[in-house]
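To: structure desk
From: M.T.
Subject: fold request, one chain
Message: Could you run this one when you get a chance? Sequence is below, nothing fancy, just the single chain.
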Amino acid sequence: MKLQLLAAVRPHMNLTALRSQTRSIAQRSHWLRAALLVAAATFAVIAPPRAAAQMDGSVSGTVLDVAGKPWVDMTVDATSDQGAKLTAKTDKDGHYSFHNMRAGVYSFTVELPAPNKPYEFAQIKVGSGETPNVNANFKDILAKQGAAAAEQVKKQEEDKQKFTGMKQHFDAGIADLTQAQTAKADMAKAPADQRDTILLAAWSDLSYSEIAVALGVPTGTVRSRLSRARSKLRRTLGDTDPSALAEESHR
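Reply: Done. Structure tokens follow.
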């Protein structure tokens, strides 16, 4: 009888335990979902300030005109490396400012009066919480550009003079070569006695008497041959006689 009673109760006990375990799992799932919702809400509350902290950069500065005075109502542009563009106007003191800037590298330009193009006067890195001061003094800018332009003109003039000197030297060399070639041609056409006499006078250390002995002619003949040969060379070389330097030693 007891065995039959236990057999009838045992299935009922197993079913009760299963239902208890199911309710426990459901309760744990409910608490887990609630915890996840709380964590998500907490992250949503905390995240915005962190994102906003990345856009708290500021830049300010002053724009001065070519006389060094505040340049009023000038447009200043700040363009980031991501392509975002911010615009500001200078006040009565030439002052401008940018706020809520995202961290990055920015190029700063001033929109000059027509027909001038916008002038880029700075490129800086803006970080979170930083407030750099970026000024543009066009009096100093023009002074530097003027000095640079003057230096460039000076260099161009020096290069021009150097080129002119090189050209003159080259032309002179060409002229000398042409004269030498012409003189060589004239010497080749000259009579043999004149050619031998002028060569000995120009390139040897012999005196007139020694040249006369070498050629087997009187000294007077040597002088007359040299005179005629030199006249031809002077006409060719423009009053330059290659044998004239040795003339004193021959006398």
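Reply (cont.): Residues 138-189 form the longest helix (52 residues). Let me know if you need anything else for the meeting.
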